[in-house]
Amino acid sequence: MTPREALKRYFGYDSFRPGQEEIVSALLAGRDALAIMPTGAGKSLCYQVPALLLPGLTLVISPLISLMQDQVKGLNAAGIHAAFINSSLTETQIARALDLAAEGSYKLVYVAPERLESPVFRSFAAGADISMVTVDEAHCISQWGQDFRPSYLKILDFIDSLPRRPIVSAFTATATREVKDDIVCTLRLHDPKVLVTGFDRPNLYFQVERTRRKDDFVIQYLRDHPGESGIIYCATRKNVDKLQELLTEYGFAATKYHAGLSAEARRKNQNDFIYDTAPVIVATNAFGMGIDKSNVRFVLHYNMPQSMENYYQEAGRAGRDGLPSQCVLLFSAQDVIINKFLLDKKDFAEMDDEEADLLRQRDLQRLQTMERYCQTTECLRNYILAYFGEHPTAPCGNCGSCNNDFDEVDMTDAAKWMINCVAELHGRYGKAILFGTLQGANRARLRELGAERFKSYGRMKDTPRETLERLLAQLLEDGYLVQSDDQYAVLHMGNITPLKQGAQVVVKLPPKPEPAEAAPKKHKAGKAAQKGKAALAGDSADLFEQLRALRMRLAQAEKLPPYLVFGDKTLVDMCAKAPRQLEDMKEIYGMGERKYEKYGAAFFAVIDTYRADHPDAVLSLDPPAPEPEKPLPSEKKKKPPKAERPAFYLTAEDARSFNYQDSYTGAELKAALIEAAGDPDVKAPTIKEIDEWLLAQRLIGMERLPTKGFYYVPTPAGVDAGLRSEDKVSARGTPYSVLLFTPEAQRMVVEHFIKPD
Questions:
Q1: Confidence (pTM)
Q2: Which of 251, 437, 539, 550 has an alpha carbon within 20 to 30 A of 340's alpha carbon?
Q3: How would residue 413 be classed by pLDDT, with cut points 50, 70 and 90?
Q4: What does the pLDDT look like over 518-528, one tens digit per residue?
Q5: Handedness of CA 597, 599, 600, 601 (dihedral sign)
Q6: Angle at 396 between CA 466 and CA 322, to 5 degrees
Q7: Is 661 helix (H, G, I), strand (E, B) or coil?
Q8: In this predicted structure, what is the pLDDT of residue 122?
Q9: Buried b (16+ CB within 10 A) or exposed e, 621-637
Q10: What ranges make up the beta strands (E) of 51-184?
């Protein structure tokens, strides 16, 4: 049997995807191999097909129980004999599995790396005919990878202990050049076929949403994508619990996953997600490695991940079937603070100080890379690909940045002030101090630095924080400024020569935001998502739902995840081709011989009945009338907007009714003014408003307290106008003065508020 014949017979595919055949051929020729292929590119087939054709057993080293179980279920469903050996089995079951493997009953056996150290397993391996050892999630072997696992370092000792060295193959979805070299070196691969197919996943639509109303966004997103399966990642367990509870309150079938749950709860919740009982799961990054659920239509990140490796691996769990899917990252400045806190708590106890410092620096560099991803206005896909060593020549035209209508604004003058401020700070501080200085903030730290004496102080006081962020991102990208890679992310001067020679700094800014009172805008789906929706409109969508219901019934009867019966892509192909003969079902994507024999007739019957019942089926252009929706969280908290109230004023008649006293404090004067006002709809005057007017008239001045803060005292002009002060002592023993208004001063304030006729 040839590799292509095995591919068609067992998996139902007519041809290999890019890169698969190269790896298969190399392994069948006896070469070691390392394949770096994006999630969903079909890495598993690269070792499963050779395993069928090689004479002995293929041992697959996999990090998670769930991954092993799903892979084995899928292989057995395709008619391939496979088994797993892990802690979910009893010792009796393990012994039985090893006996069957030794007898040649299995072509593939999946084990965890920790199992390789077991004397019982070592004894089995020494006598077994092991043709190939496959290391899945191979980036776990590198300390420079995002998921380093010390148990992976034992793999080489195990291979060396075998009586005959087998072929060694390694696979991962995310590996920088540094990690790739580490894998080859640590596993000691012999003349390996190294294949990097490229990291691009064209079916994934990437988007960054800067929003503080993350809960609103998530709820609206789920409303816009009803029935779709997706993962929502949060940075902390607290966020997971809170968001899952909120989604349940809004009627969404959502479960949760994090390390704080019991093993039983994690297993149940994961199965609810895999079996589509709960199509949405809210989780920390503890969830997902090895989850082979093909119909995940979206991955939302409620918080920014700590590295691009983490983000791309987690986002890559969407659209494994090749259908359009979305990856949306919700970003706020708080995400950076949360992640720095989590990194500070990271344990490096088992490493020496030098090694720990290197890894801390690496983590901070990766965090900065993610922050820049969230700030960039350039093509998001190209940003990701460039990080992994690819350099596309043009924007993808299908991501949030490419599809956003940015306003290009010349900010050259503002850029010069920002650069000047960095120079005045002597390259010793980060963006918090930079932005505070430019905005003229009154903070103790800035006063300590003497920032109020800088030429740049307050020069951009009316510039929004987001605009400052985008300007800084542009200056870093252009090389005018440089950010250090250490814990403090200090800003230094870069090469400003082009700016001196007349270069412009053009910043892409989002359109002006809607008023705060406006409801949050609905999620704007990308082009890729729109394509996916259009393929299943009208009657096609009805048929798809009937096929999906049949898939669920069959999966429940066999206790299988629905996607192991057929993936969404296979159901879509059934709707598109609508076979008229049972034999035609063999041409459906993903319809292998075993699945045709097992399920083909049942799915054909649904298609045939649907066609008979709908002879004139056409696409419907009339969507169902929307049902009233529960207000979003931010809307529930809001009161209806009130009509704008006029500023406080008094009429001449009101002034005559004012209750003059021998002396009023500021608070007492305010109360008397409100009592005198004849218009009940006016805004109440504030003490601050009165004080600011007195300051402007130079009737009062400020005296600083020995501790923090200040108090007001009458100037000589204020004393002449009837203002007095009374000395007081606070509960802590701090002396201060209270401003008092005599009748003369009261009359002056009343006259100030009289509205001319």
A1: 0.63
A2: 437
A3: very high
A4: 444 444 444 33
A5: positive
A6: 110
A7: coil
A8: 93
A9: eeeeeeeeeeebbeeee
A10: 57-61, 82-85, 108-111, 130-135, 167-172
